[in-house]
Amino acid sequence: MPETAVPATGGNFASTLEIGNFNRVTQAQIGSGNISNVGIIKGYANNVGVLQAGSHLKSNLALINTAGLSVG
């Protein structure tokens, strides 16, 4: 699952797992080897924002049973 991925050596790692109704997630990273994981389960009005700047970037997103679904 994306929320359990192993981060790169020397890089930034941000992981969020949300379960509920009114989920909103924002993650911002700057650097090299960044990994961003977002998992939302049983959502209702979900919004996700991931901002990464640098090199060797990776983003993983899993939205399960969502309704609002805004991704940026």
Task: Give a quick summary of the entry.
By secondary structure, the protein is mainly beta. The protein is built from no helices and six strands.
Q: What does this entry look like structurally?
A:
The chain is mainly β and 72 residues long. 0% of the residues lie in helices and 57% in strands. The chain has a three-stranded parallel sheet with strand order 1-3-5, with no helix packed on it. It has a three-stranded parallel sheet with strand order 2-4-6, with no helix packed on it. The mean pLDDT is 84.
Given as residue ranges, the uncertain stretches (5+ residues, pLDDT < 50) are none
Sheet-strand content, in percent, reads over 45%
Count of alpha/pi helices: 0
Order of helices and strands: EEEEEE
Percent of residues in helices comes to under 10%
Task: List the defining traits of the structure above.
single chain; 72 residues; mainly beta; 3-stranded parallel β-sheet; elongated
Draw up the topology in text.
Blueprint: E1 13-19, E2 24-32, E3 35-41, E4 47-55, E5 58-64, E6 70-71
Parallel strand pairs: 1-3, 2-4, 3-5, 4-6
